[in-house]
Amino acid sequence: xxxxxxxxxxxxxxxxxxxxxxxxxxxxxxxxxxxxxxxxxxxxxxxxxxxxxxxxxxxxxxxxxxxxxxxxxxxxxxxxxxxxxxxxxxxxxxxxxxxxxxxxxxxxxxxxxxxxxxxxxxxxxxxxxxxxxxxxxxxxxxxxxxxxxxxxxxxxxxxxxxxxxxxxxxxxxxxxxxxxxxxxxxxxxxxxxxxxxxxxxxxxxxxxxxxxxxxxxxxxxxxxxxxxxxxxxxxxxxxxxxxxxxxxxxxxxxxxxxxxxxxxxxxxxxxxxxxxxxxxxxxxxxxxxxxxxxxxx
Length: 297
Hints:
Layout: E1 2-8, H1 15-28, E2 33-37, E3 49-52, H2 59-66, H3 70-83, H4 85-92, E4 100-104, H5 110-113, H6 117-129, E5 131-140, H7 147-164, E6 168-173, H8 188-193, H9 200-205, H10 214-227, E7 233-234, H11 240-254, H12 256-259, H13 261-273, H14 280-296
Parallel strand pairs: 1-4, 1-5, 2-3, 2-4, 5-6, 6-7
């Protein structure tokens, strides 16, 4: 049985940075980690990539050959990956014996609440390779500063949860930067627990752009509250305690903690025992320097 994460989220939410930081953290606590890049538009990877979709298909080539834009090109690439799932399985086969997997997916949100190709890829892998995966859906914390954008993020999170039908963790990323975007109207707990959304109505009414959509926004908030599925965990990828707390939530959701309770205790005891050298920015810079030196050679 193999465990891992499916990392998704809108462009700019920090997926690649998350995969870089999370892989380093998991290695520090003793897990063997393999990062799988399934974003054909991500050509500047800060992490060591075990499997790269660009070895199969490139977005730039697809756009040029078929005269497609970025969105259409990404849909084509996911369709192509689904039809060539045997390629991905062959690449993963050596890793599933003893690695924890991180799947870095594209940022096009339509792939995860509208189209079925990415979902089909995930489910085929889970069935054929006995994977236990949790979806980690990243949302930039700055959206909490704008009530309208926050409601949109809630609706996107709910739609994605219902479409993918997998263990699912919604994460407010870059939480350390949230105050730099503006003052929150409520305490952070209001946004993470998704409490009574009617309190947002007053703030929405103050925005002239939102007044014409008042009734629609009220109905959308009602849908979100009726399902009562969405909440958020916060994340500062530079803070080992924040990352460790998120790992515990993920391990519980996909069953990792129950499959190896003793191992999990040993892993997290390493965090409490001594401070760790946790600086993914520096590691990324070193990797970039080595890559540049190699190119110069």
